[in-house]
Amino acid sequence: MVLYFLKDESRPETPGAEEPLGVHHALAERASKYTKRPNVFRLQTADWRVFLFQAPSAEEMSSWISRINLVAALFSSPPFPAAVSSQRRFIRPILPAAPSRSAPEEQHRSHETCMDQFAAELFEHQRNLPDKRGRARDLDEYRLKKDYLLYEKRRYETYVQLLETWLSAGARDLDGWEAHVGPVDAPPDPPSLTKAHSSPSLAPEAPPAGVRVKRNISERRTVRKIVPKRNKNLL
């Protein structure tokens, strides 16, 4: 399961075929945080390298994302058992590069088991928060493992969803399956903050120029002459 980079005919100065890129245990997603160019998707490999690719259109970008993830879901072998070590430092496990020979139904069950396992590990990990007054190394280890569990949970959720649609489509017609999956949805935009008409303003509005403001009795200032008691009879 490799992705080859061929020479661009429109750019003769570019070199020929480059080093192939393995897509086993990879995840392709829309690069929502990259805004310099349109129709860009990101590909994160098994060793956590990230590559950005630009497609000619949004439809072709969705096609690349769906097909790469489907190939990864169909042929990614189950992960190795976690290594036992006395060190407290978190290390990401090495994923097998050999393609899986299991049927799509078995792949779906295997990915579903991994999805539930990572969801349970993430829940347990978030329950045991580190002490904020602890060492910076412990906080970094906690964040590193949390990012890993979140990514693996999202990756297996994508695999399970694609295999469900692949099996329901008969696991034959790739174009029909892609039409059933549909385009990759863009991340929702954050809601804009609008001022409600019924909400009072936090800062008092200044009165228009030339308008006299009538104050309440409690706000009026009165000036009184202070008279000492010994001189009170002289007035």
Automatic annotation (TrEMBL):
This is PH and SEC7 domain-containing protein 4-like. It comes from Dromaius novaehollandiae (Emu). SUPFAM superfamilies: PH domain-like. GO terms for cellular component: ruffle membrane. Pfam families: PH_9 (PF15410). Signal peptide: none annotated. InterPro entries: PH-like_dom_sf, PH_9, PH_domain. Residues 180-209 are annotated as: Disordered. It comes from the Eukaryota. Residues 1-73 form the PH domain.
